[in-house]
């Protein structure tokens, strides 16, 4: 566990980035929710963790464009597969997440929040609108990280 003085020292050093990057996360999610609509809010909620990774640890492996987009594609696919199976929910939900994790690791596109995408899809629905919502969100967040990369710092 980090000592209190080290935490305070880091905050003193990076306080502007803490404020800026948190504010940017709010703005990006605000725009996504506004544009994509309330009816997709459960699916969009899977993007909350992606937003954290992109703006709090932008240099992390999981924040790379390949991982954000690839991971959410895998999550979508895993969720869609189990959405259409006739299995009970208590089997479908864990299998969707487990398969998403396996495929992400196998394809080297690890993005932990995409496991939430698999779960959101299998719970809610599979439709072109869900696909577009998640992929637009992943693309917007990835592009924000890419274009702001010179200003964003790892905050953890």
3D structure, described in words:
With 156 residues, the protein is mainly α. It has one domain. The chain has seven helices and no strands. It has helices at residues 4-36, 41-45, 47-56, 65-83, 89-107, 113-123, 128-147. The longest helix has 33 residues, at 4-36. The two termini are 13 Å apart.
State the main characteristics:
156 residues
> Domains counted in the coordinates: how many?
1
Instruction: Give the SSE order as H and E letters.
Output: HHHHHHH
Q: Tell me the overall shape.
A: globular
| Alpha-carbon Rg, integer | 17 Å
Can you count the beta strands? 0
- Distance from N terminus to C terminus (CA atoms, Å) equals 13 Å
**Low-confidence spans:** none
Q: Which percent range fits the helix content? A: over 70%
Strand content: under 5%
Q: What do the pLDDT scores average to?
A: 89
| Biggest β-sheet description | none
